[in-house]
């Protein structure tokens, strides 16, 4: 009888692996970009899911570790002809295998959904390894707590420790590299950046070293074969040292490189419009193009006309907007990327970008929002409710024919740029 | 005759008790069936735990199969020679009877190629072949105890120690159990603790009576019966002997 196969069949992890994998997958999906998908975001949300399930894994690890205590197996195991390591090793190994299977389930759920949307960049194996190592660390911490404490308290202690480690990621901790060493540290991947493998190697080495140190402690206490304990401690210490060195050495760079990614181009005529966007936005390319073609048509006869927009990967907005649309600000977290990118345009063409408009003498406070909603198209932003007067003004603009609308925009360029509208400006 | 267990002035303290549960016991156990008899709390299980190395004696010398078990760490191979059924033995609930016995064989380092035949033989001995695929949690109390015995003897130990093995067995099962122990004792030493005198009468050729941690009697069944010849309480000569020993204590 193979010990690992026996333990796989009887480990309590066989009950928790699939549900926790599915829960982690759901947590991952609910935190992922709504309408686009990237490998970077996939890795990030899987780490978030691992942090969410970490306390559960630690608790289950401690629970499984207490099996001899729960099942009154202590006498049989202590009078066995096998060492503690030989008895506990397969049990722990089976727990790790089930945890890895669970992580793969979460990975599959998040990745299949992302692939269905469209994954255009390349995966980073190192970044995708973090959730697996984080989960294995959580289980090991629980298992070792069970072996050392040997009471139900171990479950509580394991959950608290994992939660405490995770909380390092929630608060600013100095020096900042301490945060980077946490196995639950999630790294957001802004557009125009790429994962820095060296820092991930450091983070993973440190997490594996921590796991090894935990096992060494258990080995020393429960099965103090001197050579094995010494070897495990030295190897784990070396990994921890290597991990720290890598992470600290990469402080200037951190987890991210700045890159110049390849853009995809969308072109159309009548009106002439070229859009340059990241390939990851391909799932919403048609919608983006249609929305901006409409804006380009409306602005075609005015000084605000434009024929090319490029996605700005790091948009900043100052007090001196250029006066007309010239760039695309795409928010991958939005569920209406096209609509939100048009909203962002107003920060470039209007002087009202920096704050709410006050109703100065003769101006109509609702004017900017009426114009913005009209330009945005038929889809209102989520959660917006219009009073009847504003709604009626938007409807009257929508009823204009294209030539009339183009003329109206051309006649009101100054109002658009100044963000000062009178009620009489609107049809 | 080879002495399988030798105890000289052995005292054992277990848990947080202020005084030892076993006090200065001197005896020996040979091949055949030895019964360890006494009231609940007399120290039987504590003495057994010391013999299997779960508790270290506080004083005295305790040698089991030639190994001094009072040393800090026993060689794991020592346990290949001992079969032990604790009073409250546990099991993984999802184990089948076969898996439970297989696990015992694995713990005792039975070679992989021999495990199957050893398990089948052990299940056959305790009459559980038909229940081999039944989950442990679904077995009756008596069947579960027989499975425990199968696990204790699956590796063919030289010394078999059974702590209250007949607890939970019905009369028919107890009769079968006695036959089983008789067979096993022809080739090995069997130490069984019990507070059931009729089991002892049917099985043991050597009786140890513990009372409040002290060894009150160490002799044969006939010797114990003679001790009770003038004692009035008790339904059988052996019972009278047992009660006489306790009364003299």
Descriptive terms for the model:
heterodimer, A: 427 residues, mainly alpha, four-stranded mixed β-sheet, two-stranded antiparallel sheet, 6 strands, 5% strand, elongated, B: 249 residues, alpha/beta, Rossmann fold, six-stranded mixed β-sheet, four-stranded antiparallel β-sheet, 8 helices, 35% helix, globular
What is the level 1 CATH name of the domain at 1-81 and 191-249 in chain B?
Alpha Beta
Low-confidence segments of chain B: none
Query: What structural class results from the helix and strand content of chain A?
Result: mainly alpha
CATH homologous superfamily designation of the domain at 1-81 and 191-249 in chain B? P-loop containing nucleotide triphosphate hydrolases
**Secondary-structure-derived class of chain B:** alpha/beta
Which percent range describes the beta-strand content of chain A? Answer: 5-15%
**Which fold does the CATH topology of the domain at 1-81 and 191-249 in chain B refer to?**
Rossmann fold
Helix content of chain B: 25-40%
Our Rg estimate of chain B from Cα atoms comes to 18 Å
In DSSP terms (H or I, runs of 4 or more residues), the helix count of chain A works out at: 17
Biggest sheet character of chain A: 4 strands, mixed
Radius of gyration of chain A equals 29 Å
Helical residue percent band of chain A: 55-70%
- The SSE string of chain A, one letter per element, is HHHHHHHHHEHHEEEHEEHHHHH
The shape of chain A, in one word, is elongated
Total DSSP E strands of chain A: 6
Question: Going across the major beta sheet of chain B, what is the strand order?
Answer: 6-7-8-3-9-10
Give a written overview of the molecule.
The complex is a heterodimer of chains A (427) and B (249). Chain A has 427 residues and is mainly alpha-helical. Chain A is built from 17 helices and six strands. Chain A has helices spanning 3-10, 13-31, 39-65, 67-70, 74-78, 84-117, 125-149, 153-167, 176-181, 197-222, 226-249, 285-299, 337-349, 367-376, 388-398, 402-411, 413-418; strands at residues 193-195, 256-258, 264-268, 273-277, 308-311, 327-328. Chain A has a four-stranded mixed beta sheet. In chain A, α3 (39-65) runs antiparallel to α6 and α6 (84-117) packs antiparallel against α7 (125-149). The longest helix of chain A has 34 residues, at 84-117. Chain B is α/β, with parallel strands linked by helices and 249 residues long. Chain B has a domain at 1-81 and 191-249: 3-Layer(aba) Sandwich (Rossmann fold). Helices cover 35% and strands 24% of the residues of chain B. Chain B has eight helices and ten strands. Chain B has helices at residues 44-51, 97-107, 112-125, 141-153, 171-184, 197-203, 221-227, 237-248; strands at 3-12, 22-30, 32-38, 59-64, 67-68, 82-85, 159-163, 189-194, 206-211, 214-219. In chain B, the strands form two sheets. Chain B has a six-stranded mixed beta sheet with strand order 6-7-8-3-9-10, sandwiched between helices. Chain B has a four-stranded antiparallel beta sheet with strand order 2-1-4-5, covered by helices on one side. The longest helix of chain B is centred in the middle third of the chain and has 14 residues, at 112-125. Chain B starts with a strand and ends with a helix. The mean pLDDT of chain B is 90.
């Amino acid at each position: 009888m193979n010990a690992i196969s026996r333990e796989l069949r009887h480990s309590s992890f066989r009950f928790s692996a699939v549900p926790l994998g599915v829960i982690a997958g759901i947590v991952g999906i609910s935190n992922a970009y709504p309408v686009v998908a990237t490998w970077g975001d996939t890795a990030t949300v899987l780490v978030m899911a691992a942090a969410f399930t970490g306390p559960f894994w630690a608790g289950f690890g401690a629970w499984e570790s207490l099996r001899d205590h729960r099942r009154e197996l202590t006498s049989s195991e202590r009078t066995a002809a096998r060492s503690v390591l030989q008895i506990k090793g397969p049990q722990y190994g089976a727990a790790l295998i089930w945890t890895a299977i669970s992580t793969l389930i979460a990975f599959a759920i998040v990745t299949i959904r992302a692939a269905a949307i469209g994954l255009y960049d390349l995966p980073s194996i190192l970044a995708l390894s973090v959730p697996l190592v984080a989960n294995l660390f959580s289980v090991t911490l629980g298992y070792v707590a069970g072996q050392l404490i040997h009471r139900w308290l171990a479950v509580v202690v394991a959950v608290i420790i994992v939660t405490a480690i995770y909380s390092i990621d929630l608060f600013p901790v100095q020096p900042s590299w301490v945060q980077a060493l946490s196995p639950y540290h999630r790294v957001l991947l802004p557009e125009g950046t790429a994962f820095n493998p060296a820092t991930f190697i450091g983070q993973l080495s440190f997490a594996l070293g921590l796991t090894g140190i935990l096992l060494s402690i258990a080995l020393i206490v429960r099965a103090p074969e001197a050579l094995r304990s010494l070897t495990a401690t030295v190897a784990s210490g070396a990994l921890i040292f290597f991990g720290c060195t890598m992470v600290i050495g990469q402080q200037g760079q951190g987890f991210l490189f700045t890159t110049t990614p390849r853009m995809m181009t969308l072109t159309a005529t009548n009106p002439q419009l070229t859009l340059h966007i990241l390939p990851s936005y391909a799932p919403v390319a048609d919608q983006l193009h249609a929305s901006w073609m409409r804006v380009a048509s409306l602005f075609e006869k005015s000084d605000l006309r434009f024929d090319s927009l490029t996605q700005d990967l790091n948009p900043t907005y100052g007090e001196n907007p250029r006066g007309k649309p010239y760039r695309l600000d795409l928010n991958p977290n939005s569920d209406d990327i096209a609509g939100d990118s048009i909203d962002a345009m107003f920060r470039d063409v209007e002087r009202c970008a920096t704050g709410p408009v006050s109703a100065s003498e003769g101006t109509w406070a609702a004017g900017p929002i009426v114009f913005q909603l009209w330009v945005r198209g038929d889809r209102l932003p989520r959660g917006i409710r219009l009073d009847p007067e504003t709604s009626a003004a938007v409807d009257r603009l929508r009823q204009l024919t294209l030539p009339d609308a183009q003329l109206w925009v051309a006649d009101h360029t100054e109002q658009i740029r100044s963000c000062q509208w009178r009620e009489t400006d609107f049809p | 005759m080879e002495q399988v267990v030798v105890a000289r002035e052995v005292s054992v303290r277990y848990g947080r008790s202020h005084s030892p549960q076993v006090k200065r016991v001197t005896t020996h156990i040979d091949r055949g069936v030895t019964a360890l008899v006494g009231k609940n709390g007399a120290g039987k299980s504590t003495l057994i735990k010391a013999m299997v190395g779960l508790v270290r004696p506080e004083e005295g010398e305790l040698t089991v199969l030639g190994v001094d078990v009072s040393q800090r760490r026993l060689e794991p191979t020592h346990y290949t020679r001992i079969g032990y059924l604790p009073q409250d033995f546990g099991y993984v609930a999802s184990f089948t009877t076969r898996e439970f016995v297989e696990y015992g064989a694995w713990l005792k380092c039975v070679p992989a190629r021999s495990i199957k035949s050893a398990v089948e033989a052990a299940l056959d001995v305790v009459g559980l072949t038909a229940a081999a695929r039944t989950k442990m949690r679904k077995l009756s109390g008596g069947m579960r105890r027989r499975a425990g015995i199968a696990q204790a003897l699956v590796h063919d130990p030289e010394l078999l120690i059974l702590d209250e093995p007949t607890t939970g067995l019905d009369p028919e099962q107890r009769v079968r159990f006695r036959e089983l122990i008789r067979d096993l004792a022809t080739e090995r030493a069997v130490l069984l603790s019990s507070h059931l005198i009729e089991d002892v009468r049917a099985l043991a050729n050597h009786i140890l009576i513990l009372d409040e941690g002290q060894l009150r009697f160490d002799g044969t069944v006939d010797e114990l019966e003679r001790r009770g010849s003038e004692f009035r309480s008790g339904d059988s000569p052996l019972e009278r002997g047992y009660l006489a020993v306790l009364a003299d204590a």
